[in-house]
Automatic annotation (TrEMBL):
Belongs to the Mrp/NBP35 ATP-binding proteins family. In the C-terminal section; belongs to the Mrp/NBP35 ATP-binding proteins family. The gene is mrp. The lineage of its organism: Bacteria, Pseudomonadati, Nitrospirota, Nitrospiria, Nitrospirales. Homodimer. This is Iron-sulfur cluster carrier protein. Keywords: ATP-binding, Hydrolase, Iron, Iron-sulfur, Metal-binding, Nucleotide-binding.
Length: 291
């Protein structure tokens, strides 16, 4: 028993020191692939950065790392004193497996390798002081999720889902896994909730209606908000200009900002609430103008 306590204390201490300058580590998860987890992670990271927070985004989707493309940063990171300097894009510090392996290389990792790479992402990257470090996970429940929960103290996990039943089934499994490893559930984000026709304005619920909110109610976790399915969001991901920075005045960008604000409120962040669109536009032009 004493051994167990000693082991627990040691592992908690190791967890705390691995990224000591980071206030809140947030896992962005999904039960299913393709529901828009990386899109949400990159837009939330930008929204948090725009609110004045110091933000990092770790692309831990080792099997399909898309964050550099979505954040418009394909040039790899530089090194300093044997450590890796994260790449900066739209005020967000980024690291991804995509920076470290050739583009065409197959990404096949065994469990122990996953653990080692993840550890290197924390131990060997100069993250510096951050208010939030968002971690874009691979879909589902696997080695990365498990390793991560053992490696760093997570402020919690958000789960991205589409509203239909088949996606929600996997949400429940994913959330149960986080509960099992004592990671707080910060809430559910419903993506691709509805489509508004750009010509006639008609709203179509392509993937059904309200499933994310119902799942949140059932699981007793906060429902953080819904994001429409919209070509501008897809385009932002493909072109490396997340909609939050490309079209900050759009309702889609406002939806992401609203979710970011809810997360900050939940975690006790001190960033300024409800910055005006004008000040956001100015910010985007100034520090990120060179992107
Ligand atoms: N709200 C949205 N409206 C339009 N397109 C979207 C939206 N969200 C995501 N997409 C698009 O859907 C595709 C999948 O998104 P994304 O890569 O973010 O999903 P994912 O859940 O991270 O996938 P995976 O983890 O399986 O790689 C991308 O082409 C992205 O641009």
């Amino acid at each position: 028993m004493a051994d167990e306590h000693t082991h627990q204390a040691q592992s908690t201490q190791a967890k705390d020191t691995l990224i000591s300058g980071v206030k809140h580590v947030i896992a962005v998860s999904s039960g299913k692939g393709g529901v828009g987890k990386s899109t949400v992670a990159s837009n939330l990271a930008c929204a948090l950065a725009l609110s004045g927070a110091k933000v990092g985004l770790l692309d831990a989707d080792l099997y399909g790392p898309n964050i550099p493309m979505m954040m418009g940063s394909t040039a790899g990171p530089e090194q300093k004193d044997g450590k890796i300097l994260p790449v900066e894009s739209y005020g967000v510090k980024l690291i991804s497996m995509a920076f470290l392996v050739p583009e065409e290389a197959p990404l096949v990792w065994r469990g122990p390798m996953v653990h080692q790479y993840l550890q290197a992402f924390f131990r060997d990257v100069l993250w510096g002081d951050l208010d939030y470090l968002l971690i874009d996970l691979p879909p589902g429940t696997g080695d990365v999720q498990l390793s991560l929960s053992q490696m760093v103290p997570l402020a919690g996990a958000v789960t991205v889902t589409t509203p239909q039943e088949v996606a929600l089934y996997d949400v429940r499994k994913g959330m149960a896994m986080f509960q099992k490893v004592n990671v707080p559930l910060l809430g559910i984000i419903e993506n691709m909730s509805f489509f508004v026709c750009g010509h006639c304005g008609e709203r179509t619920e392509i993937f059904s209606h309200g499933g994310g909110e119902r799942a949140a109610e059932k699981l007793g976790v906060p429902f953080l908000g819904r994001i429409p399915i919209d070509p501008a969001i897809r385009d932002g991901g493909d072109s490396g200009h997340p909609i939050v920075v490309a079209h900050p005045e759009s309702p889609q960008a406002a939806a992401f900002r609203d979710i970011a604000q809810k997360l900050m409120n939940r975690l006790g962040g001190s960033e300024k609430e409800g910055a005006s669109i004008d000040s956001l536009l100015k910010k985007i032009k100034e520090p990120f103008g060179k992107q």
